[in-house]
Amino acid sequence: MPETENYPTPLGDAGKADLSAEARRQRALLKAGALQNAILTSANFSIIATDEKGIIQLFNVGAERMLGYQAAEVVNKINPSDIHDPQEVTARAQALSLELATTIAPGFEALAFKASRGIEDVYELTYICKDGSRFPAIVSITALRDDYGDIIGYLLIGTDNSVRKRVETELNAAMAAAEKANRAKTDFLSGMSHELRTPLNAILGFAQLMEIGSPLPTPPQKRNLDQILKAGWYLLELINEILDLSLIESGKVTLSREPVSLAEVMLECRAMIEPQAHKRSIGMKFPRFETPYFVEADRTRVKQVLINLLFNAIKYNKPGGAVSVEYTLRPPESIRISISDTGAGLAPEQVAQLFQPFNRLGKETSAEEGTGIGLVVTKRLVELMGGVIGVDSTVGVGSVFWIELSLTEAPQLAAKETERAAQVQPLQHDGAPLRTLLYVEDNPANLELVEQLIAHRPDLRLLSAADANLGIEFARAYQPEVILMDINLPGISGIAALKILRADPSTAHIPIIALSANAVPRDIEKAIEAGFFNYLTKPIKVNQFMDALDVALKFAETAADLTPKPEPA
Q1: What's the pLDDT tens digit per position in 83-138?
Q2: Does residue 332 have a cis peptide bond before it, meaning omega lies within 30 degrees of 0?
Q3: Cis ω on the peptide bond leading into residue 219 (within 30° of 0)?
Q4: Which domains does the chain show, CATH number per domain?
Q5: Which pairs count as long-range contacts for 355-364, CB under 8 Å and 24+ apart, including other chains?
Q6: Mean pLDDT for all residues in the chain
Q7: Which of 254, 360, 536, 557 satisfies CB 3.0 to 4.6 Å to 372 for a cystine?
Q8: How far, in Å, CA of 96 to CA of 84, rounded?
Q9: Cβ neighbours of residue 310 under 8 Å, at least 6 residues apart?
């Protein structure tokens, strides 16, 4: 029988399949090995692996580059907490103890605790390099487990966080500098407003006194007084508008968003603006609100916006022209107030420049005074209240300025508030007993102005005090019906004096009106929150001053009626 030769036998299908699977496995292992090698040799990430006790077992190239150690210097020798800032490690242990309601020892235990509970933890820390230098890092820690779920070590992957930290530090420094600059700007504006208003108070106050004095001024004197008052009120308008614009741009304006009755605001605006229209022979037409509409806005700012638009419609109208105010409902929940005039109108290129600061659209040389700021302030205020402002204009026909505000429901107490406001009306003083007014003021010109104003009120007598301490003594001794208080006083301020008077039962009931050149909204809000009955800004407007005084006197009279009288012995 011939000898059998050993020839390779052909592989069956099963054998081929086994070979193919083995090849895929080998390729997968090669890929995994290449991936693992790429990770371990990456210079951009520090990769540190420990055993279950926290002793370093792996220290990759990235860790060597970042920390300055060679792997042989740390493997089987130290744990990661030895190259972390110890204060941060202790703080982290305390934070984790509070978070997880258990005690965690400082050290690597703090770093690994959450990871050991199956929670991957990512945190910021400071690495300490071999040469003692430090750098911020972001580290992710994960527990490593065997097939049975037991912890066999921890993996820490870190990246240098220096650039982001530097950017954050620079950004925070820039923000702090900007905030400091804004505060300085606001303080400067507040101070300048006060310094400008103080002399204006004397100019406008005494000019108004001369206008109504006895004997009445001659026609030439009246014309001179008119020029003084016109220039003074214009200067005050300029101060107010620059202050408003600066506060809006610095984000310091605070608005009270509440239901505001359009009918009430429109009546107030009409009372203020119609005399101006009559002087220029401008016809005015206002809407009748058959249905009470309320907008969500700041009442004072809505009035400011409407008065500015109405005054512009009068100022830039033609002689004998007309101004019409209308409203239309805009879906879904808005109302549009439109103010149209019969002036010269604006060309498209002028409309495009309309809301630019100090741009008067070529009116700089006209007879009409203006700052070029009013419309800018108006636009910013409307937008701060969540509204929209716009204009439609035709040259030779006129312009229509409009604002849109969101409608809201009427406040439940609106009727009661209206009734209460109606009750607080200036008193008729015929036959009224003499009442005492105390004015705490250190400026002689301001004091003389108020003295002359009160001289027109035979029902009042005026006491004065040059500083707050003397004012407090006078208030306790003379029990005035009303106190006028300057804010910037020598010694203690008007606000400090107010607090003392409010804390004293013998003077706590007296209404105190602030009369100050501080006109920044923040200062006014601070004073009202402190407890002032009212806040009037200088320069004094005589009618406004008298009205505020009458309201305070009425309050004092009511408070006196409600105060229990001591029983006779």
Answers
A1: 888 888 788 777 777 766 666 666 666 666 656 665 567 888 899 999 999 999 99
A2: yes
A3: no
A4: 30-160 (3.30.450.20), 180-249 (1.10.287), 258-421 (3.30.565.10), 426-562 (3.40.50.2300)
A5: 355/379, 357/245, 363/316
A6: 80
A7: 360
A8: 17
A9: 269, 273, 323, 325, 339
